[in-house]
Structures are given as structure tokens and as C-alpha cells.
Amino acid sequence: MNVVLTVILAVQMLAALGMIGLILVQHGKGADMGAAFGSGSSGSLFGASGSANFLSRTTGILAALFFACTLMLAYFGNAQPRTGSSVLEGAAVTAPVPGAAASAASGAAQIPGTSAPATSSAAVPAPPAPAASGAGQIPTK
């Protein structure tokens, strides 16, 4: 299965690079008008109007191949068996161990470059409550 995905991805990347090259080689619609009045090089490798048909068809074929490879990659990517219904369910959940040392429970111990306080986590005072709420916080002139 891994080899199939690698081959499909390689074909998709080659089709994308081929489309980029062919689109950059093609002339716009305005370039045909200039060639009709004599300016530009109408005698090209594929003839006067042969390059438009050849390049357009090749670009269309490569676009269809790119689209098919994209659909196959999406199908094979979703066909793999899952352990849960969500990506987040498979994430590792770490919870603090009850009765752990005070430095592990302390918020300062989790910051690199700081030392943990010598007090236990039960002796850490709670932060003070806000002095005023609502209209009392609006500054007056």
C-alpha cells in the first residue's frame, strides 16, 4: 500500500510540473491576434496553429491525470483504519500525579530558568479578588 501511494504521489508531482511547463510555454489569446497581422513568429515548431491544439490537449490530459491522482490520494488517505473518531482522542493526556512534590505542582517550576519556591502547594496564597467590577472600573474625568 505504501508503494502505491508513493507511485501515485510521484505521478501527481510530475503531472503538476508538466502542467506548469506547458502553461508557461503557451501563448495568450492576444498573441494570436498579433500573429495574424504579421508580427510574432507564426512559423513555430508545431506550425502556424498546431501548437495551440497540441499544447492545449496535452495540458488537459495532464490536468485530468493530476485530478485523478488527487482523488486517489484522498481516497487512500481516508481509507486507513482509525483508532478513534477524532484526532484529539488519540493525543496523549498527561495529568499531574496527586501527592507529587511541590515544585512540580508550582507554576514557577514549569518556567525554565526559575527556581521553585520553598513552600508547599497548600501554603501558596490565592490571588486577591478584583477590587471593583462593572461600572466601578470605568475611569471618570
TrEMBL record:
Record bears the keyword Transmembrane: yes
UniProt feature, compositional bias: Low complexity: 110-124, 131-141
Pfam families the UniProt entry points to: SecG (PF03840)
Mode of membrane association: Multi-pass membrane protein
Subcellular location: Cell membrane
Main location: membrane
Keyword annotations from UniProtKB, A to Z: Cell membrane, Membrane, Protein transport, Translocation, Transmembrane, Transmembrane helix, Transport
Transmembrane segments: 54-76
Region (Disordered): 110-141
NCBIfam families associated with the record: secG (TIGR00810)
Role, per record: Involved in protein export. Participates in an early event of protein translocation.
Family listed: Belongs to the SecG family.
PANTHER family in alphabetical order: PROTEIN-EXPORT MEMBRANE PROTEIN SECG
Protein name (database record): Protein-export membrane protein SecG
Gene assigned in the entry: secG
